[in-house]
Amino acid sequence: MNTITATHPLPSLGLCPACEGEIRIRKNGRLYKHDQPLDSDAPIVCDSAGYWVTTCPGSGRQPAARLEPTFARWLYAQRNGDAYTDRVAGLASMKFNGCGRTPGRTPGDVDWTTPEQLHQREHDIQRQRTGSDVRQPYNGQRCDWVCRDIAAADAEYQRLVEAAA
Ligand SMILES: [Zn+2]
Ligand SMILES: [Zn+2]
Predict the structure, then answer these.
(1) Global pTM?
(2) Ligand sitting nearest the alpha carbon of 127
(3) Are residues 19 and 40 in the same domain?
């Protein structure tokens, strides 16, 4: 159980009062330093030398709210793991690092929150592409390895939530 917790811990996230980003919370209860999103409505701040300060003024402040570590947020937190040896990181990388057409996706950009919704979404995409939600047409299996990765990630996530309760 400890190894699992250490590998993919539930993220501790807070809502930034300045940029409204979902930012990790430090052990002292304050938000990690982070850059302002480029599409932020926050005023542009320059330093004394006239350089644009990209660090969000919410950095180091108390979060406006604590955010529930949903499945989507937990998966997002794993996106920079080793996608080749770690199937949870592999799934996260596929969903959030994405291809060139979908850069910088966050849990707020995807239309699923739970593993069930993500799984259904995979089959919806398959139906849009092929007219059938069977993902392994060569042998008629409705589910493929992506579905199995989602199920494995779901099981691990549920164990973490139970351990944290
Ligand atoms: Zn911020
Ligand atoms: Zn499936």
Answers:
(1) 0.83
(2) 2
(3) yes
